[in-house]
UniProtKB/TrEMBL annotation:
<dbReference type="InterPro" id="IPR050539">
    <property type="entry name" value="ThrE_Dicarb/AminoAcid_Exp"/>
</dbReference>
<comment type="similarity">
    <text>Belongs to the ThrE exporter (TC 2.A.79) family.</text>
</comment>
<feature type="transmembrane region" description="Helical">
    <location>
        <begin position="165"/>
        <end position="186"/>
    </location>
</feature>
<feature type="transmembrane region" description="Helical">
    <location>
        <begin position="231"/>
        <end position="253"/>
    </location>
</feature>
<keyword id="KW-1003">Cell membrane</keyword>
<keyword id="KW-0472">Membrane</keyword>
<feature type="transmembrane region" description="Helical">
    <location>
        <begin position="117"/>
        <end position="135"/>
    </location>
</feature>
<dbReference type="InterPro" id="IPR010619">
    <property type="entry name" value="ThrE-like_N"/>
</dbReference>
<feature type="domain" description="Threonine/serine exporter-like N-terminal">
    <location>
        <begin position="13"/>
        <end position="248"/>
    </location>
</feature>
<feature type="transmembrane region" description="Helical">
    <location>
        <begin position="192"/>
        <end position="210"/>
    </location>
</feature>
<dbReference type="Pfam" id="PF06738">
    <property type="entry name" value="ThrE"/>
</dbReference>
<protein>
    <submittedName>
        <fullName>Threonine/serine exporter family protein</fullName>
    </submittedName>
</protein>
<keyword id="KW-1133">Transmembrane helix</keyword>
<keyword id="KW-0812">Transmembrane</keyword>
Length: 257
């Protein structure tokens, strides 16, 4: 069967884009793209990946093929990363055709994620656990649970509306600040600091920070610095949102919280 090189190039690039959008490290994306291309017998497969774009090329039957894939969104989906990595390793063993590769990538892309109810529940439980980690009691933990669920509700809604990530974080942080003060005001919890810190842990860019370090250590300096800047901007957004909420509450209540 004759290999459709353009189709293979598109499939490999799409797989790389899905990995990058799901929070994969730069070296992992490049490695996966090259592995997919090499599995079909092309020569000199190469890939250059940055957080906002992917460039892939290879040589096949005396022709050079190249493609640029722009990346606009980035999130976290470790299950999708696992599925694509597994698929790239099965290609050679199972002799998967390019058409079947495209079909499997489509299934992975459209695969059912966790329900919103489950996401809300475990977001709340994460904040609940962080409250004990930071030395809070049951009141702070329950308050963090409620605030954590509210943060995730706002975040998911704004993602649905395709709101800018920076603005999404700012608004979610404002909600976290106001609700944390409210839970203290109605005396569910008593330590405002612990409630706020436990809640905003859901917004802390842990994946971006980890990938920035891993990419830098691996020699991908551009990606490492870019991800570090992204993490810094998210931290600034969190500080702006919580700071605004606390300053407004202080002006309304009159005095220190």
């Amino acid at each position: 069967m004759t290999l459709d090189a353009n189709r293979l190039l598109k499939a490999a690039s799409v797989a790389g884009r899905m990995l990058l959008e799901s929070g994969a490290e730069t070296y992992r994306v490049e490695e996966t793209i090259i592995r997919i291309c090499n599995a079909y017998g092309v020569q000199h497969a190469s890939s250059f990946v940055m957080p906002t774009g992917i460039m892939t090329s290879f040589f096949y039957e005396n022709r050079n093929y190249a493609r640029v894939e722009r990346v606009y969104e980035r999130g976290t989906d470790l299950n999708k990363i696992h599925l694509i990595n597994d698929l790239s390793r099965r290609i050679g063993d199972e002799k998967i055709s390019v058409r079947d590769l495209e079909a499997e990538l489509t299934l992975i892309k459209n695969g059912q994620r966790y329900s919103e109810l489950l996401i809300w529940l475990f977001s709340g439980l994460s904040a609940f656990g962080f409250a004990f980690f930071f030395g809070g009691g049951l009141g702070e933990a329950f308050s963090s649970f409620l605030v954590g669920m509210a943060i995730k509700t706002v975040s998911l809604k704004m993602e649905t509306l395709q709101i800018n990530t920076f603005f999404n974080i700012v608004v979610s942080s404002v909600v976290a600040g106001f609700l944390s003060v409210f839970t203290v005001w109605i005396e569910i919890g008593s330590n405002l600091d612990i409630i706020i810190i436990s809640s905003i842990m859901l917004l802390v860019p842990g994946i971006a920070i980890t990938n920035a370090i891993r990419d830098t250590v691996a020699g991908d300096l551009v990606s490492g610095l870019t991800r570090a800047c992204e993490a810094f901007l998210v931290a600034v957004a969190i500080a702006l949102g919580v700071g605004f909420a606390l300053s407004m509450c202080m002006s309304w209540i009159g005095g220190a919280l």
